[in-house]
Amino acid sequence: MDNILVFLRNMFQLVVAPARGWEDLEAEQHGRTAQAEEELASFNYMHCFLPIIAVCSLSWFVRLFYGYSGGLLGCVQGAVVMFVSLFLGAQVSMWLMGFAMPRLMEEDPRLPSAAEWNRGRMLDMICYSITFIGFVLMLANVIKVRIAILEFLPFYVVFIIWKGWRYVGIREQNLGLFMIAACISVLGSVYLISFLLNAVM
Known about the structure:
Elements: H1 2-16, H2 18-28, H3 34-58, H4 71-104, H5 119-142, H6 149-152, H7 156-162, H8 165-168, H9 175-200
Helix pairs in contact: 1-2, 3-4, 3-5, 4-5, 4-9, 7-9
């Protein structure tokens, strides 16, 4: 439980002050090896990220209290689609960034690279970014009236990612390419998977 509270505290700070939030996360990692950081990130993924997105997904059932026309079956479907989209979004994002990061560590991203990159920190960035999207979707479920700003709020994750480029250790000259790769990986994967699942179901 304490781990989830720490994760949520970090999430709140990244939303309120992204630059300071990433700096604090980097300070917490001081002295750890890359392997230790990856192990901690994997622990947070299993014991913090997954339970939180599960709770966010269950917010679909709140719609039953204000007469959701889809009924119980519609809420079950919505919850399943939301959880699977957030879960697979994290998996796909890590897979895509696994191709991009070695190149973004080099001076010339066009050249093949065997550069080592910090998988733990990248997993942190992906988990916090997708958790934010999960919270926005949860708000859309628990608020009865439709608020237009909630449709655009997920794009705030672009700002969160932008402020974390130093945290993941890419080169400044590759910042633009990093933003394109990271935003497509995170936002694109979550919403594309959600669209496909809704189309199938």
